[in-house]
């Protein structure tokens, strides 16, 4: 059924923008007092009521009252929201001066969440994930990447990935699963890091592929996780199995982004430690640079060099890294607004990083825009000027429109 939805004080479709490099607000297409024509859940066109009504006289009217700015739904291209328990103790220890490494060595960190997640049933994980996805959706995030990585065994990783798949049927948000079995070396694995990665390749990923549980594989490259040579070999073999690959890169030390570029990863995420060398590598590549301001806020550390990445010509996406340890808040819009203020990003750069460029980080076509043929999943903010959205730093909440 054809439906005309509007009027909107401003419509920002985020079409026609370059994929890489800096953006000026003047490059944004803004349609004033526009309406959206959709048919069977897909956008047909955007225009004035008079023209659309004339061309489509039988279309049903869905009238929106008051001033509203219409945007595509946001895309969070990096989260860890399939987990059980919490790490409030970690947060308190960090705030009192303990380092990330010290907390992990004392029994906290990722392994603490692994223990709590392993103890939860698949049904419990599904229920918890649906609640978090629905909360994200209520904040305007319509597409959510969700990683495993808190199981760290074949059985437990499959439990997580199956919970993500089941949750996708129970929320209106679109969930994109990623296998992060290569998060850290599990404490109960009797073998080397390389042997553990081989175990994932031989015994886990074939089942993931067979059950269609994920088309993406991630690895954490750090001194306390996996080395660059191990990651290169692992990612190359994962690609040969038919997976897209992404990398946790340059969070505390450099090296991961170079691996991401060399292997042709879809994205390199974190980048807080990236320097000029890494920035140039990413800018010359097709790998999307993903900034995670939630982790910077949670850990009290510097942001990814978003301004430098854009000026160098990189494609920059912005994601929440919502997880129980380093980024427990999960408020994507607030985090993006704060990152924009800290790194001097234009509104166009921030919003593209949450929509069209974030879609590219997940290899999603026809998403993150209000283009003809795109799903009519939109969000309307109660204001008259799109700049008010970031100005309110996450306090202005949207209405999701389907």
Tell me which oligomeric state these chains represent: single chain
Structural class: alpha/beta
What is the CATH topology of the largest domain? TIM Barrel
Distance, first to last CA: 13 Å
Number of domains: 2
Overall pLDDT confidence: 97
CATH architecture of the largest domain: Alpha-Beta Barrel
Largest sheet: 8 strands, parallel
Number of distinct beta strands: 15
Uncertain regions spanning at least 5 consecutive residues: none
Explain what you see.
The longest helix is centred in the middle third of the chain and has 18 residues, at 193-210. The chain folds into two domains: 2-73 and 368-401, Urease, subunit C, domain 1, CATH 2.30.40; 74-361, TIM Barrel (Alpha-Beta Barrel). With 402 residues, it is α/β, with parallel strands linked by helices. It contains 16 helices and 15 strands. Helix 6 (154-168) packs parallel to helix 7 (193-210). An eight-stranded parallel β-sheet has the order 6-7-8-9-10-11-12-13. Strands 1, 2, 3, 4, 5, 14 and 15 form a seven-stranded mixed β-sheet that branches. The chain is globular and about 70 Å long.
